[in-house]
Design goal:
MMS19; MMS19 nucleotide excision repair protein; mainly alpha; 87 residues
Length: 87
């Protein structure tokens, strides 16, 4: 698994509104690639994103809405898988 220090700068690039949109997209794509290649677990990602997901800064929180649908779809898939793989 990738250490948080190796990918957290991608998260920061994504939520930083002063960055160019290409840099923000690049950060998001890098994180997605780590998750797809099983080098970053979803649980670890969510744990590290705690600050970004619970912040009172509206600008930072506004960057997260794009991930909401994907997060909900993922949760639904995990809940449906429970009967096959257990808790």
């Amino acid at each position: 698994m990738a250490k948080a220090s190796s990918w957290i700068h991608h998260v920061e690039a994504f939520v930083d509104s002063s960055r160019l949109s290409e840099q923000q997209s690049s950060g998001l794509n890098a994180i997605a690639e780590l998750v797809k290649s099983d080098r970053l677990a979803i649980e670890g990602l969510v744990r590290e994103l705690e600050l970004y997901l619970t912040t009172t800064d509206n600008i930072v929180r506004a960057r997260d809405w794009q991930a909401l649908r994907g997060a909900l779809v993922g949760c639904l898939a995990l809940l449906r898988r429970k009967s096959e793989a257990g808790m």
